[in-house]
Amino acid sequence: MAAITGQQFLDRLRQNPPTLYIEGQRVEDPTTHPATRNMAHSLAGLYDLQNQPELREKLTYEENGQRYPMSLLVPRSKEDLARIGEAHRLRADYSLGFLGRAPDYMNANVMAAGAGAEYFNRCSASVPGSEKRDFAANMRRYYEFVRDNDLCLTHALTNPQVNRAKQASEMPDPYIALGVVEEREEGIIVRGARMMATLPIADEILIFPSTVLKENADKSRYAMGFAIPTNAPGLSFQCREPFDVGRDVEDHPLGSRFDEQDAFVIFDDVLVPWERIFLLYDVELANKAYAATDAVLHMAYQVVNLKIAKTEAFLGTAQSIVNAIGSGQFQHVQSKVSEIIIMLEIMKALEVAAVAGAELNPYGVMTPARGPLDAARNYYPGMYARLPELLQLLGASGIIMMPSKADREGPLGPQISKYLQAGNASAEDRLKLFRLAWDMSMSSFGGRQSLYEKFFFGDPVRMHSALYEVYDKQPAVERIQAFLKRSEKPQAEEVTA
Ligand SMILES: Cc1cc2nc3c(=O)[nH]c(=O)nc-3n(C[C@H](O)[C@H](O)[C@H](O)COP(=O)(O)OP(=O)(O)OC[C@H]3O[C@@H](n4cnc5c(N)ncnc54)[C@H](O)[C@@H]3O)c2cc1C
Ligand SMILES: O=C(O)Cc1ccc(O)c(O)c1
């Protein structure tokens, strides 16, 4: 099939709906349910982009006479990486960077894990009956399956937030965290829950090990990696409160189109076929899976490109507000817009550095440099909160005094047109702009974005610690030691009268 159209995506979703629950009700058809239909159609629009004649070359690549999404290309050169990066940015622009988990992110995960599938071979030896299991082949085949069908994936890594002081096995019930219950001829039975899966209106869910499994054991029933359809028997997604509340696009420009949803994932004795398992029981292998296959770097590369698009959207919105209310001559206003420019240029520079420093990894995959990507994924979550704050500081009351489309069309329409016009635009255009700023920074959609940016790639506290652990600080220490040992002093010429 490969590089599908939006209609194909919608048909597939309608025919195989994930088992979603919203507000206590089963979602029978996510393509028509009020909380998910607009998002489903936005995703369809994203799939359609890759089939537009002018974008086809940029968003897909050709292999064996088929076209596949660019985010699944296994990069062998820096040129390949640059092509992938451009596709990430073009696709991010579609949602102004507000769709965190468009399929590109998981595609990067599956691409890197598939190309580094040998890593998972080491696991087979520790599984009973392992002569029958070839986890590396499973991972490789899964990549091909995702690519050949242009699947949309969601994923869930973390355990329910019941008690972070305890290991999974010490919880009130051993199957609060997702664990293996038993092995059967056809596969394993898993029970328990995972805390968070963004974009549950997906074809499949990837269960990968979080980078930190705290179990104090070499082997654990909680160490696992697998993928199954989102409508597998026994699997349910409990969605959070929807932020698409059925308003006009003009009123909720982001929430009405890009509420990707987040779901709590419940496994009620779900069968995972052996051929869908990539990793089992091995704690060390689980902890290192993301790093050792470099999947984390390819995902971070998608992320840095996405955040460039998002920061550009903040810059464009901020400057549009300044233009609309004529505040551009004030020095502090200029300085606030400059803060966004600085963030944007830092992210762009880190993206360029990631490609410039890319190297082939042991699996022959051209892998963007860790240093700049680690910097980006630690920098942006800490800085992001300033972006919505800057919109609030620049827009002030304009971001709350925003009569709706219905108000504009109601009895007070003429007054609204007069009193809420912009210095450079009609009231209609001004209100559209401020509604966008509100959805980016203040609405429930915007609030969720602020939380998302803090945590979506892991806990920022532990990410900083991880950076501290992996970063080679020794050369810098040695330079200081060498400097401290230098005893020579520049000889100043004596000036004689
Ligand atoms: C909007 C949103 C969408 C997300 N989407 C996904 C998704 O699609 N898939 C997915 O797998 N995950 C997703 N995540 C989850 C994300 O990976 C986690 O939020 C992140 O890893 C932090 O884990 P946690 O939320 O369980 O926080 P917790 O681990 O419960 O942390 C809560 C607090 O306790 C502190 N804390 C806990 N344990 C420690 C410790 N050992 N050391 C120091 N401090 C500690 C933390 O610093 C934090 O302050 C999403 C999160 C959000 C908010
Ligand atoms: O490994 C972890 O726990 C951190 C992590 C990595 C990738 C993700 O997508 C994510 O949500 C969280």
UniProtKB/TrEMBL annotation:
Lineage: Bacteria, Thermotogati, Deinococcota, Deinococci, Deinococcales
The protein's enzyme class: oxidoreductase
Encoding gene (name): hpaB
Residues covered by the HpaB/PvcC/4-BUDH N-terminal domain: 5-279
Binding-site list for substrate: R101, A102, P103, D104, Y105, H155, S210, T211
Domain HpaB/PvcC/4-BUDH C-terminal: 286-484
PANTHER family given in the database record: 4-HYDROXYPHENYLACETATE 3-MONOOXYGENASE-RELATED
Molecular-function GO terms, alphabetical: 4-hydroxyphenylacetate 3-monooxygenase activity; flavin adenine dinucleotide binding; oxidoreductase activity, acting on the CH-CH group of donors
Protein name, as recorded: 4-hydroxyphenylacetate 3-monooxygenase
EC number(s) from the headed UniProt entry: 1.14.14.9
Binding, FAD: H155, A156, L157, Q161, V162, N163, R164, T198, D459, P460, V461, R462
Residues passing through the membrane, by range: none
Keywords: FAD, Flavoprotein, Oxidoreductase
Matches recorded under SUPFAM superfamilies: Acyl-CoA dehydrogenase C-terminal domain-like (SSF47203), Acyl-CoA dehydrogenase NM domain-like (SSF56645)
Species this chain originates from: Deinococcus metallilatus
GO biological process, one term: phenylacetate catabolic process
